Amino acid sequence: QPEQAATVAFAVSEHPPVLASVAVARPVRGEFTYSVPEALLGNLAPGQRVLVPFGRGTALGFYLGPSTVTLGEKVRLKPIQRVLEDSPSLPKDLIALLRFAAEHYRYPLGEVIRGALPPGLSKPVDGKEAQPDVQQFAVALVNEVPAALARAHAQSAALAYLLAVGGSAPLEEVSHAIPGARAHLKSLATKGLVRIEEKKLEAGVKEGLIQGRPDRLTPEQAAAGEQLRGALDAGAFQPFLLHGVTGSGKTEVYLRAAEHALSLGKSSLILVPEIALTPQLVGRFRSRFGAEVAVLHSALKDRERLFHWQALRRGEVKIAVGVRSAVFAPVENLGLIVVDEEHDPSFKQDDSLRYQARDLAVVRGKQASAVVVLGSATPALETLENVKKGRYRLLELKRRVDDRPMPSIELVDLRQERPREGIVTEEAPILSPPLLQAMEETLAKGQQVILFLNRRGHSTVLLCEVCGLSLKCTSCDVCLTHHRSQNRVVCHYCGLTMPVPERCLECTGPILKLGIGTERVEAEVVERIPNARVARLDRDSATSAERLTELLASFARRELDVLVGTQMVAKGHDFPGVTLVCVVMADTSLAIPDFRAAERTFHLLTQVAGRAGRGKDPGRVLVQTYNPDAEPVKRVLAHDFDGFAQQELEWRKALAYPPFARMASIRLEGEHPEQVASVARHLGNLVSRNMPPASAGVRLLGPAVAPIARIRGKTRWQLLLKGPTHVALAPLLARVETALADVPSAVKVVLDVDPGAM
Ligand code: ADP
Ligand code: ZN
What we know:
By secondary structure, this protein is an alpha/beta fold. It is 31% helix and 23% strand.
């Protein structure tokens, strides 16, 4: 942009300068134009990191290509100072993706690029090759954790992790999952239980590593596989939705597609919601393709991240499995992108660059002419709509592997099963008689049970019996949750904790503890079924990745009978011993103030139900609820995804919500309520004044106080923009963005395009 260029102009060149477009890693919008000194001519390649003068100092920049800007006569440009690396860190197709992300999510391009790079490359220093080229691997020498190790918890956790991921993994990765694992693995090595090997990362995948590959595919898997092979052979962009019921063997379809891509010399990128919760998927990729799979998780060490980046960049590693941020991995010669559990909310990042990795995966696939597979048992309505419009091809797996039956889902009406007068006492049990009976029957057969409730803590509301006042956080507008094990009340938003007040702080009346969390459910199970071995899986109990792995592993080894947990238990686990899944209260996620509440509830219930009956014994699911007539509850009971989706889509269409409209939110927060409100109103007026004619279908909702009006002492407001397309919203967002320069710094304003997008 000439304007910006002019502000940095100072140097004089005798010849007409060669101009370069550079993204500067600073929170400023747009690309900047610099001149290219003669010494650098011929040395520049798009994607290189460069050092450029910026403001009064220098900054890291990314050379994007020749600039097409036409300059006024007087404008003189500063020159690029130095090129920081010989071969570009950023591959060309990634530049295109990052440009799209910056544009779409309204975030400075330089910052987008810097955020995507491993820390080793995100500073303005000369690029170094990451050492070592040799990686240490731990290889398990046993097939299960020996009983003798039972008391060495850390060591058994390390070994359990190794076994869960297919028997071998880089030390770095295990140490991520289990802090201190390096030492534990060495101890295990002295006991002869593992071997530590050094491996050199080499191009391509070695022969003879293929293990655990089923001889036969189900007819549906085979049909899906055929379509994917055809698309891979064609070598053009083609998105697919792989809609497969839980336990239908979607992972095997991904694996075969990746195999085929590899046979064509192409790479694959596999995105998953959370690696610690799904070591099984990583394990299947590892055991199929060997250790040369790059696993990109959120807690990699800087050095490790750089190492993977460079190995992928050089095309030495052809398969990357990773979380959300891996959508930016520099995979060379991309043939296949898989997004597993594509409906999962964790694909949306909710700070800095607020991107939706699933959406970006499709964009990247298009740019790279790759095949994209979005897999789920409960596809997002956005994705379904894309199928309906003919943009994505549909592949269906309607049956479970080996024709195992889908679990039977039954309703328990809490209005009848939980005595009315009982509700206001602390003792009112939440495990109903039918639920307890089902649990006892299951346990008697030596099978396992999962109890799901999407709330942590013991009681979630503390209410004064006399004045009715509920106990709230002093700095957030939310109720405090009682955590009995800590004997404290806790704010789930800011972490504030304090001792449990004996009496109401206002009127000294007695306090009732209402609302149920996982801790309370666990206590009730212990009390009602004393001989069951029970554990709880939520953010309070799985305080470390080590604890999490250990809990999951010991449940898998059947050392536990009952697992009580939050949505952590609902993810893609494959526990063949589980034949009973109970949803303790289906109502919790229905009440959230979001137009996606019903969809989210449907997804959660289906996912958690899908944990039942994955082994040889059939599964059973009990859903306790106060709202048996709620649409998502009814449809889950009937296994009626299509009916749910159709009805929900009609509703969304009538009210112009996504996928039939696009949204963007403008969120404000600040210390001073008055100031935040006044900025919100100011932005509201600005939007209103710039509103296109009504025919454009753009609407402003708000400004209004946010659903949670205060968090960490900061008052929150929001504005919501709704319009038929992103293009329709863009001018308004641009206008707001310009106005942000004048907003007092005490008020933080965040733009979020596609807020909460699933
Ligand atoms: P999904 O992801 O669809 O819920 P998974 O991919 O986890 O299902 O597969 C369910 C189980 O079936 C896994 O234990 C998997 O190893 C097994 N499986 C998948 N495909 C086959 C097959 N063709 N033959 C035998 N077992 C299979
Ligand atoms: Zn708080």
